[in-house]
Write a structure and sequence with these properties.
Helix 1 packs antiparallel against helix 2 and helix 2 crosses helix 3. 24% of the residues are buried. The protein is an all-alpha fold.
C-alpha cells in the first residue's frame, strides 16, 4: 500500500494550478511556486522525510493564508483551503501510522 498518495496528488494538482496562473498572468513567482509544489509532490510520493516535513509546514502556511482570503470574501480560495486541508490530514495520518509502527517494533523487539 502506498501511503501519502492523496498528499502527493494534491500537491501536484496545486502545482498544476499555479502553473496555469503563471501562464495566465506571466508571473515568474507563480512559476517558482509551481515548481516547488511539484518537487514537494515528488518528495512526498517517495516518502522522503525532509520533503514530508517541508510539505506539512508549507501546507499549514498555505491553509492559513488561503483561509484569510476566504474570510475576506475570495470564494475561489475555497479550493486552495480544501486542497491544503486534505494535504495536512493525509500527512498527519501518515505520521500517526509511522509512529504506531515504530512503537510496535520497539515493544515487540
Amino acid at each position: 500500500m502506498r501511503r501519502l498518495r492523496v498528499a502527493s496528488s494534491l500537491l501536484f494538482l496545486s502545482g498544476f494550478l499555479l502553473l496555469y496562473y503563471a501562464y495566465f498572468l506571466s508571473s515568474p513567482v507563480y512559476l517558482t511556486f509551481a515548481i516547488f509544489n511539484m518537487g514537494l509532490a515528488y518528495g512526498v510520493g517517495i516518502e522522503n522525510k525532509t520533503a514530508i516535513k517541508v510539505a506539512l509546514v508549507y501546507a499549514g502556511v498555505m491553509f492559513f493564508f488561503s483561509l484569510l482570503f476566504l474570510i475576506a470574501g475570495n470564494l475561489m480560495a475555497f479550493v486552495e483551503v480544501a486542497i491544503s486541508f486534505f494535504i495536512i490530514h493525509d500527512i498527519l495520518g501518515y505520521i500517526k501510522a509511522v509512529v504506531e509502527e515504530e512503537e510496535t517494533e520497539i515493544e515487540g523487539g
